[in-house]
Design brief:
This protein is α+β, with helices and mostly antiparallel strands. Helix content is about 55%, strand content about 10%. The chain contains 23 helices and twelve strands.
Length: about 625
């Protein structure tokens, strides 16, 4: 193997070493999740638990991917995945289907999102400041109070999956804009699509941030005098074009979901998700005192302790030290200038995010369309945790610069013989020891401050729940559709159900008989009844015309046909169930759930984006 061949392999092994170290340092932070049948008692954990149980039941009946969950709402169905993200629930569902108890699958999901937050942060920071800085930033992000609260207190599976994607997108996006790597572009586009499938609120918040970051870094790169990488520069397309291409194709891949969620808002009572006091942004600003508060002592007398949305003293202290890099990072080379640029960008990010979390930003909240659906201004405290964690590692940046003979010298130094060189090596050894001590102290401080967040209350859960478990939960809590506000009820549903005749079928293990035989007139008969995943076909013979009733909520996508001809559906008042007219005589009747023209059009746009992501990029530069 030639030295040229061994260099990439050596770099990969070095990267693997530092990423493994990052994951090992994150293990103490996931110890609360090392449970088999118990989960942290979180705000939303029960909701996700029962949604996954309903998905598992649908999977067992051959429904693998769907916008309509047919067995929620006591079997009347719910258009959950028309509006809500599927990725975090599938991430829990798949290991559960592989045999893990559902609580263990849920714990595994949250543990991996915490570790992934560190790994992706490390990849991004390592490109700019070296591996030691990367490790500190990674631990700072994994141990950030907001990251741990999301997993162990809020139980916010969608946002927990989104948080590690943020540094991943910044890492891949930078490599695409600076070096034109096709692999970085594809990773960034797919990552941005996954962000949309994970947490659409995070996409709404973060896509502008990603766009500004890529444009600023790209415009800076076009003005630099020398490359930031030893790789030969590519023929450069404008930075704005590259950033726009990544954003457009990444968001376009998910447009069949995000576009539909926006364009079909009027079909459901989505305003319920923003009008309750708990979800109204006007009541959910953070305060400076809260953001900068120390670790609070536990108060066992509180049954429902308040959320403490803080940044943490240890990461803030390290971030302040990191900003001193603006002083000691000197030099005219491209790498140093890019490092200083990133410090300024992170400071701006902290300022903007914290501004949006505070009441002073109220005029912006009142002016921006759709921002109501962000619900909680304090979400921006969690977004500020990312640039704070980035800055926390800057103080541990690798300050060495390789010279032509591969020895490490300072900027502007010259070789003057063996003695100065030996002196420099001795100084480097001493500096390395102090750096290692500082690294260990920083990691210890970050981990110790996170310890109070690692003692949640635990709830025992049924390892393998059934759809009967879901219906019992709906009845006991009143959260029909496993939805706390009822935000996704079709507007035709004026009276929400408290049960359904379909429950007897579920209890007996039968296919739910959704074509309502009790609505048939006297003397009418049914035959050749065949239920499929999303519908029924049958033959009805009736002595008189009648109004057929199908026990599912009316919603765009449902279609009824009599003798092959589509007939209009009328939502029953006040239940919102499907009804349609059937004439006298013998007729073939079919009820099916399917795609609408709007959804097909949006899917076409996403397919075009997928094709564009594979054909509109330049040849790879070899950088990944």
């Amino acid at each position: 193997m030639t030295p040229t061949d061994s260099a990439p392999r050596s770099r990969r092994l070095n990267t693997a070493y530092w990423l493994l170290l990052t994951a090992l340092l994150g293990l103490p932070l996931i110890t609360p999740l090392l449970r088999w049948t118990a989960v942290a008692c979180t705000h939303d954990g029960h909701l996700h638990y029962h949604r996954v149980a309903a998905m598992a039941h649908a999977w067992g009946n051959g429904i693998y991917v769907t916008r309509w969950l047919p067995d929620l709402a006591f079997g009347y169905g719910y258009p959950f995945f028309v509006y809500r993200e599927a990725a975090p629930l599938y991430a829990v569902l798949l290991p559960h289907l592989a045999g893990l108890p559902l609580p263990a699958a849920s714990n595994l999901f949250y543990a991996l999102t915490i570790l992934a937050s560190g790994v992706f942060m490390a990849l991004w920071v390592r490109d700019l400041f070296g591996p030691r800085a990367a490790v500190v930033s990674a631990v700072a992000y994994m141990a950030a109070p907001y990251v741990l609260i999301d997993a162990l207190v809020r139980g916010n599976a969608p946002e927990s999956l989104a948080l590690p994607l943020l540094p991943f997108l910044l890492w891949a996006g930078r490599r695409w804009v600076l070096f034109g790597s096709r692999r970085a572009f594809v990773a960034g586009a797919l990552g941005l699509a996954l962000l949309s499938f994970s947490h659409n609120i995070s996409t709404f918040i973060f896509a502008p941030t990603l766009g500004v970051y890529l444009i600023v870094v790209g415009l800076w790169s076009e003005r630099r005098e020398e490359p930031v990488s030893p790789a030969p520069p590519l023929p450069r397309s404008p930075a704005l074009l590259r950033a726009t291409l990544l954003l457009a194709l990444g968001l376009g891949l998910a447009f069949f979901y995000t576009g539909g969620a926006v364009l079909e808002m009027d079909q459901v009572t989505l305003e319920m998700s923003t009008t309750t006091r708990n979800n109204d942004w006007r009541y959910n600003f953070a305060s400076v005192a809260e953001i900068l508060s120390p670790v609070a002592p536990e108060d066992p007398s509180l049954l429902n302790p308040p959320l403490r949305l803080r940044l943490g003293w240890a990461p803030l202290l390290l971030a302040v030290l990191g900003t001193t890099g603006l002083v000691w990072l000197r030099g005219a080379d491209g790498r140093t200038r890019e490092q200083r640029l990133h410090i300024w960008l992170m400071l701006a990010g902290v300022a903007v995010y914290l501004f949006m979390a505070l009441p002073v930003s109220r005029p912006i909240w009142e002016a921006l369309p759709l921002i109501d659906f962000v619900q909680f201004p304090w979400r921006f405290v969690g977004r500020a945790a990312l640039p704070v964690a980035f800055l926390a590692g800057v103080g541990f940046a690798d300050r060495r610069r390789p010279t032509a003979d591969h020895h490490e010298t300072g900027a502007g130094e010259k070789e003057t013989g063996p003695a100065p060189r030996a002196m420099r090596h001795a100084q480097a050894a001493v500096g390395g020891r102090w750096s290692a001590v500082g690294l260990m102290v920083a990691i210890a401080l970050l981990t110790l401050e996170a310890v109070p967040n690692l003692y949640p209350r635990y709830c025992q859960e049924e390892p393998f729940p059934t759809i009967l478990t879901v219906h019992a939960y709906e009845r006991a809590t009143g959260l029909v559709g496993v939805d706390p506000e009822g935000s996704y009820f079709p507007r035709a549903v004026q009276e929400r159900p408290t049960g359904s005749p379909l429950e007897a079928d579920f209890a007996a293990g039968r296919t739910p008989q959704r074509f309502d035989a009790t609505a048939l007139p006297a003397g009418a008969t049914l035959r050749d009844v065949v239920y499929t995943c999303h519908g029924v076909s049958l033959t009805v013979n009736s002595p008189q015309p009648f109004t057929a009733r199908y026990l599912s909520f009316d919603f765009p996508g449902w279609a009824a046909r009599v003798d092959g001809a589509r007939v209009p559906i009328a939502a029953e008042d006040p239940t919102g169930l499907i009804t349609f007219a059937v004439p006298a005589g013998e007729h073939q009747v079919e009820v099916r759930w399917g795609a609408t023209p709007l959804r097909l059009g949006l899917v076409s746009l996403s397919v075009l984006s997928l094709l564009g992501s594979t054909h509109l990029t330049p040849p790879t530069s070899g950088l990944v």
